Each structure stands twice: as structure tokens, then as C-alpha cells.
Amino acid sequence: MEAANFRPSRFLAATTAPSPPPPAPPPSDPRSLHFLRHDSTTNSPKLKPPSTFSVRASAGVHNNPVVTLLDYGAGNVRSVRNAIRSLGFDIKDVQSPKDILNAERLIFPGVGAFAAAMDVLTQKGMAEALCTYIKNDRPFLGICLGLQLLFESSEENGPVNGLGLIPGVVGRFDSSNGLRVPHIGWNALQLMKNSEILNTIRNNHVYFVHSYRAMPSDDNKDWVSSTCNYGDNFIASVRRGNVHAVQFHPEKSGGTMLLFLADLYVDIICINLLITLTMNETDAGLSVLRRFLYPKSFSTKVAFETLEDCTSGQVIACLDVRTNDEGDLVVTKGDQYDVRENTKENEVRNLGKPVDLAGKYYRDGADEISFLNITGFRDFPLGDLPMLQVLRYTSERVFVPLTVGGGIRDFTDGSGRYYSSLEVASEYFRSGADKVSIGSDAVYAAEEYIRSGVKTGKSSIEQISRVYGNQAVVVSIDPRRVFLKNPDDVDFKTVRVSNPGPNGEEYAWYQCTVNGGREDRQIGAYELAKAVEELGAGEIMLNCIDCDGQGKGFEIDLIRLISDAVNIPVIASSGAGKVEHFSEVFKKTNASAALAAGIFHREELGIGSVKKHLSNEGIEVRLTPYKPPPSRFSRPWN
What we know:
Elements: E1 4-5, E2 15-16, E3 53-55, E4 66-69, H1 78-86, E5 90-93, H2 97-101, E6 106-110, H3 114-123, H4 126-135, E7 140-144, H5 145-148, E8 151-154, E9 160-161, E10 166-172, E11 183-188, E12 190-191, E13 205-210, E14 212-214, E15 224-230, E16 232-240, E17 243-246, H6 256-262, H7 271-278, H8 284-293, E18 314-323, E19 329-332, H9 354-364, E20 368-373, H10 386-395, E21 402-405, E22 411-412, E23 418-419, H11 421-431, E24 435-438, H12 440-452, H13 460-468, E25 473-477, E26 479-484, E27 495-496, E28 507-514, E29 519-524, H14 525-535, E30 539-542, H15 556-565, E31 570-572, H16 579-588, E32 593-596, H17 598-601, H18 607-616
Helix pairs in contact: 9-10, 12-14, 14-15, 16-18
């Protein structure tokens, strides 16, 4: 059981304690992806942990302020845990079918593949207990896969039988008409009936990341509480009695009001009244969890209205993280990948602390936070990687998707301990990451696949996507522009460039690199993108070394080439310098998101100003007008 994290109250006794990590699945579980940590003899970069306070909710709120969490050991559920604890509840993890049957309220944050989840539930005898619990109309909230498993079956690696509680088959999105799959992004919901937990969503956006969905039909219409349009109308949520489930991720759909509440010195006895009075409609994601956990505190009536459904353009803040020469973990930013100052000392450029900046960008309205670990940390045991600490602390305050890249590969630490890329990714997921970004290792895998034409199943892309789904795998492509006078001069895909080269060249190809741009490879960005999509990548982060840090705009020719070539989402990166660059990339290419770093770190542009500009240009974005007031009780988090 875990204690709720709050700052101290003058009404309640508090004890200073570190927030305990989630318990590992039993070692006997063959599907357990929680790996043991090893003591490090290496001096870790300095990262100050946040002070947390362990307090217990008063019985005046609930007789039993505990949420039972069904975590079967795959994927990131840390954010769900953090959200639950922040709302005043302890957590009891399911260890046996009896724990399900005895639960007062049960949350199932399903992550990963349908078949793997059903195997675990069946082998442990939990499938039958879960069906009994739900049939008895006990308080239940399923999230993402936790919704899909309620249906009769799934086509994912199947057909595979589900729990069979709701009529229907979970099928893959149809990408034959150009639809990008996975569906990754922020969408509005179409509410179909009073669902209680969705009544404050209205026209706010919530975050989806999935390749499979259930469709509404006459057989399941009594269950459907909302739909969402992505190619077709699919089921976004279901509700019958006390049983709820959502396809989106409420714990990743924002929770601005949660930060405000965490900064107040309040007695948890008063939290029902407080959250009712301070509920803000921009708090879309965590309001779902809040209403599920406090069902009797709200009586808002929902107004059903027809909304225009479309996926919003995402604005992503990227933080390049590395150790400086003093051993501190800092956010830095390079010019064409050079992160050192042009001074006599040649020191690493220090633009802030990673957890603090991530929290700031979240409050400013970033749709996603991306961390790039640009220090090798090759000698560190996996459990002691500094980036894991950053993820753990960030996930306590940031309730939008977190992506981490750098070092996702097979490696051996200084003590000779070997780790597979799947083990590395798994530990990142357990620490708070929602997606991992693979760079150099993806290039090597694509080269081998193009050479042999064989999917071995051993590459990092294949291993991770097989266990966690392709929506969890991002491939970061780092090409540089190579001008050509004749497009037939190379065997790679070329484009006619918008701006001719220094000698009047009208064509170019984009040569991929590895090792942070230090080594060129004989593979083009187009060929790499097509190969990694086939290997199982779910998203592409498309950089351009020539544009990095220049502030002259995204490499439109490259982004158009790649976003037209693949059916998975493409994130445009490198080169943004003003708000017009963001609207340009969304208007001229099929990019699903635009990423920036230095202009946000140096406060040359704010995320809010970028989104306001995009909205004014007619581009759908998730707007978050509410910002909590600063608190004199706030502490630095690293």
C-alpha cells in the first residue's frame, strides 16, 4: 500500500519520507518486466530528490480511502499511481484474485498487448475474478487496454478472446486510406449519455495512444458513453452502473488543478469541498479520475452537443539532458549538435534543471515532454541510470506523455552485467516513460533489414514493440542534407529542394547519421523511415542536423518527404525560431507534431504563444488557458 503525497498540513501529522517505488511483480511471474537494481560503485551525477510527505486520508472522507490497482507488470503505470496518490488515496496492488473480489474500488490501467494481458489474467486466475467483480456492478475504471479487454475478442495478434463482458471485436485502425496508425494525439469526445466521470470534459481534448479500437454497434450501444472520430467513430468510453472504462489516458490528459491543490496547505478532510469549488474545465484528464474516486461529490449535468472531431496539432518540448563538467545533471542545447559554449572554458551549455523545466512546460501547456539522454552512462548499472531518477521525479508532477531517448540498446555496464534493449526500455517504462525513442540502434537494425529482407525479431524495435505495442516505440532520425546536381547520382530517395545549394544544386538526399551526428551512414532518411515502420516503430521523430539550433525554420522538404511516405505519425524537429515556423510545418506537411527545445529554454518563445498563434491560423490545438497561481510553498524538485 502506498501513501498519498501532500505537502504538510497544520491539521495532520506528517512525516518526511521518500515516495516508495511501486512493488515489483512476483519474481515467479515469467512476464514480469520489473528488473532488479544493482548497487553502483560509480559516482552518479548529482540530482537532488524532492522532499515528499506521507500523510493518511481521514476516515471523514471515506471509510476506506484505498484504491486497488491491477498492474500486471507491463508498461508505465507510475503516472496512474502518482495521480491516485495526489488525489488523496492509498494504493493496494492486486496480488491474487481475492484482492480483486475484496476491492472497494478497482482501477485497471492496461498497457501493452491484448494477448499478453489476457494470458497473465488467465494464468493467475484473475480473469474470472474480474468478470465477477464487474458483473456485480462494483466500482471499476479500466484505462486503454483496460477497456479493450472487456470486449469479446481482439484482432491484435489474434483473434484472441477477451473477457466477453461487452459485445464486439477490437480491431485495428484502417490505414489503407492514409490514416496514421497508431492514433497518437489529443482529441475531443462526443458524449453519448450521462457518464458522470466525463461530465466536465465538454469540448476539452484528451490524450489517445493506440492502434486498436472497438466500434459502436446496436449490440453494445447500451454501454457506450462517448465516441471519438479518427477515420471512423470508435468507442472512447463505456459506462454501465458503477463500471467505467476509457480508451484515452486520463493520467496523461493534463491536470493543471492538481498542481494548485498540491501547493495548498489543506486538511484532506476538506478535499471533497475544495476540489468541487476549484474544479476547472481545462483539467480534463484528472477530472475523470477525481470523479471516479469521489462519485458523490459532483452533480454536474452534461450538455450533449455535436463537436467537430479532429486530432489537434501537438507542441512538444524537448529537453536534452547530460552531465556538465561538475557532474550535475543539466538541460543543454546544441547548435548543430554541439552543446559546448564558444568560450575559453568550453563548458557545457547549462539551460536549467530537467525536472523543473519539465514541470514548467507542462504548466505552460506542452502536449508532451521529450527527454533526450545525450550522455552515454555506459558504466552505470541499469537501476542507477540518472535518467531514471529524472523520470521518477517528473512523473510526480507532469501529467502529459513522457518520452525518453538515448541509450536504448543492448549494453554491458562497468561490472560486466549485460542488459538487452528490452530490459533498458522496460526500466524506463517502470520509471515513468510512456514511450522510448531509439536512435543509432534503429539505424543499424534498418540497415540489416534492408540488406537481408528478414525480420529477425531481435532488433530493439521488434523486441520492444512486441511487448509494449508499436505506439511505445519512437525512432529518432538524425540526417544531414547532401546537395546533388543530378538526382540519379545516388541510389537513395531525393527531393527537389525549395532553396538551391551553394553551387546552385536543385536536388538533395538526406543522409542518416549515428552517434549524435558524428558518423555518417550509407542509408537515406526515406529508406530508414520505411524500414523502421515495417519493423514495428509507431512514430518518427525527424530531426535535421543542418537546421538544428539555427532558428530559421523546420526542414520542410525533408518533413514533407517522410510524412508522405509513412503511415505512422511524424514529429517535426530542428530549426524552429518563431511562431510562424510552427504553423508553416503543419500547413505544408503531414507532420502530426512539432518539437522545439532551445527557443523554449531561452524563453525566446513560450508554448502558450505558439498555441495561440496556431489557433489563430485555424490549426486545431489543445488550449490550456488556466494557470495555477505561484505558491510561496513551492520547492525546487531537483
